[in-house]
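Researcher: Please predict.
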Amino acid sequence: MAISGDANRSAQTATDKTLDPEEVKRFTRIAAEWWDANGKFRPLHQIGPPRLQFIREAAIAHYKLDASALRPLGGLTALDIGCGGGLVSEPLTRMGAKVTGIDPSERNIAIAKGHSEPQGLDIDYRAVRVEDLVARGETYDIVACLEVVEHVPDVTAFVAECAALVRPGGLAIFSTINRTFKGWALAIVGAEYVLRWLPRGTHQWDRFVTPDELAAAAANGGLHDPRFAGITYNPLKDVWSLNPDTDVNYLMSVNKPS
């Protein structure tokens, strides 16, 4: 999808605070593996169920939806920031939400479209940045930004742009990795060098974000009432699940006042 008008100027003048071109290139190079559950994106496939559980439960609680409904997010709009190949956009659509997925990599968007369209899933995929949507004045009921903030140079600036896309009274969900010794040991040493779940260099420890820092960035953008949950790995069962432990992977939900 071409960018025009104010959105085009936004893309041209946006600072490097909210996007690292090298990170975009890194994920573009391996874009063909997005839907390979045993490939380079295997960890994202594994943490998919607890991430989606958190989003579903947060949205149901926030909007007082029917938890027993097959498509509980029906009638809500959702934005998936940094959607990659669509690992979150597709299940959110199946939950009933009208989903827009954005990613700065045109290759990622092509992969996402190529996977969703044969299934008849109506997802509005766009190769744009958050600033482009902000320039257009777009807002959504649910804004999800999962495993993205640890890849941007300036978390506060980036989260402020994300917050601008949450409608008044809306909900935002973030997930990332905590900047702890445990986070370094498991997410970098373990996942990239020992188990080789991820390509080496996928993460930079100094870009990991603590829950307090993420909550502060959200508050700076007008998002409040942070609620956290961790995602932990059980090596005996080879299963990831929601857990109060936020030492490594964690999620945060925040609200925008009406």
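Model: The chain has one domain: 5-255.
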